[in-house]
Design goal:
globular; 27% helix; 16 strands; 9 helices; seven-stranded mixed beta barrel; 3 domains; alpha+beta
Length: 456
């Protein structure tokens, strides 16, 4: 009996050693909480230390002998309920981790094969700012925790979303309309307002910056999104005014990204919007966050396809009825399709294949149901994304069906855009007030749409 116990102890020792040992094929981030306390809260930070050992030693941050200070807490909603936890970290001092831009605020996300490619798609589509994410192995309180993505977080700042940021508790009515970062959300939060979208459901809008509102800010935000919602639902799409409040081009690009990824969460959760302080300050879709890929055969636009959970897409069902929006989608698509797809597919291999060994170890530690290796997952992801791209190219949206018969916008490119004001004057930049935007394509076709520029 003693001999059996002795053998069992040795076996358990080597199993534990194997699970603890990182592969070293990726950067390793070592984090220790004070007194090795367990991280159980998503709101209360625990003090701790960290250091990073990179595969390129010149990029190491801190060291085992001289670790740096941080705070760490849990993060996420459904992801927090899993056995493998995601974390939010706040460094004591700003640092440029793994070649990413200097900042204090970072996230350690559970590894997903679509996160890095999805963010890259945002960059290819010309979003204002998109987070960067790097794969790492995490050792937490001396225990190997597996493969994670060290990720920049969505926030206003010099090295993040670089826009004007108004202060918490602002009462100045002249500056309240500018400097916002909000999220159309599907979870209840304390920093949140609700407006009625239609007779069936509400929209929950979480305000991230500012994150503490004065009564004046709260009143303005409710009124702002109530007015935006009313304009989006206005039946006469030709004379709707939502374009005065929302950047049409950015929303079109955001829509394309959700369709290419087949991301069902795109218009009902983690749907960020921001508003700068500029001459033509409108709400802009983005930054991207919480991306997924449905890995299913597309039979319709993603927001119309059924999911295994309750799914209420906000606004997109109305926006796609507006020909201005559809034209913006087609113009943005012509910049992407056939021009940037190949480089995107190459990027998927470049960012996923180096994770091979760490992914294998992560599968064993967290008992993955799908035992495919990362190379097979990368191939499947590329195959499914390419299928989504071709489906979308064959089903480019138009609110005026008879105006696009036998026209293939994706095979032509935009060669000139001019803006014409009410006096008939032309310019390459929009005039204050009402404009007619005239787009000329390489095949000689032209399209026109109205653009309204508010004069502050």
């Amino acid at each position: 009996m003693i001999k059996v116990k002795g053998i069992l102890s040795v076996v358990l020792f080597f199993v534990a050693l194997a699970m603890k040992a990182q592969t070293g094929t990726l950067p390793i981030i070592y984090i220790d909480t004070e007194e090795h306390k367990e991280i159980t809260s998503k709101t209360v930070y625990l003090p701790g230390t960290y250091y990073i050992v990179d595969t390129d030693s010149t990029k190491n941050v801190g060291s085992e002998e001289l670790p740096l200070s941080l705070e760490i807490r849990g993060r996420g909603h459904s992801s927090w309920r899993g056995t493998k936890k995601p974390y939010k970290i706040k460094l004591d001092k700003k640092a440029a981790l793994l070649g990413m831009n200097t900042n204090k605020h970072w996230a350690l996300l559970k590894f997903s094969d679509v996160t890095m490619p999805g963010f890259q798609l945002g960059r290819l589509m010309g979003m204002n700012w998109t987070a960067t994410s790097k794969p790492v192995e995490l050792v937490l309180n001396g225990v190997y925790n597996g493969l994670y993505l060290l990720t920049e977080t969505n926030r206003i700042g010099k090295n993040r979303l670089d826009i004007y940021e108004q202060k918490n508790g602002n009462e100045d009515k002249n500056s309240i309309p500018y400097g916002w970062l909000v999220e159309i959300d599907n979870y209840r939060e304390n920093n949140q307002i609700k407006i009625k979208e239609n007779s069936k459901w509400n929209i929950s809008i979480t305000y991230h910056s500012p994150d503490s509102l004065s009564s004046a800010q709260n009143k303005w935000l409710v009124n702002e999104f109530t007015n935006i919602n009313a304009a989006i639902y206005y039946e006469d799409k030709l004379n709707s005014t939502w374009e005065e409040m929302i950047d049409v081009d950015a929303m079109a690009r955001f829509f394309i990204i959700q369709e290419v990824l087949d991301n069902s969460d795109g218009f009902h959760g983690s749907f960020y919007m921001h508003k700068d302080s500029t001459e033509d300050a409108r709400w802009v879709a983005g930054p991207l966050w919480d991306l997924s890929c449905g890995h299913r055969a597309k039979t319709d636009y993603t927001f119309r396809m059924k999911t295994s959970y309750g799914f209420i897409p906000h606004w997109i069902g109305e926006l796609i009825k507006d020909e201005d929006f559809c034209i913006a989608v087609r113009e943005a698509w012509s910049e992407f399709y056939g021009k940037k797809v190949d480089s995107w597919m190459e990027y998927i291999d470049e960012c996923l294949l180096p994770c091979y060994e760490a992914y294998e170890k992560d599968k064993r530690k967290w008992n993955y149901t799908d035992q495919s290796d990362i190379s097979k997952r990368a191939e499947k992801l590329k195959t499914d994304l390419l299928a989504n791209i071709e489906w979308f190219n064959d089903h480019l949206p138009s609110a005026i069906a008879d105006a696009i018969d036998d026209v293939d916008f994706a095979d032509s490119r935009v060669v000139k855009v001019e803006y014409i004001n009410v006096s008939g004057m032309r310019n390459f930049k929009p005039w204050p007030g009402l404009n007619v935007k005239e787009t000329t394509y390489s095949d000689g076709r032209t399209s026109t749409t109205k653009v309204i520029i508010k004069d502050r």
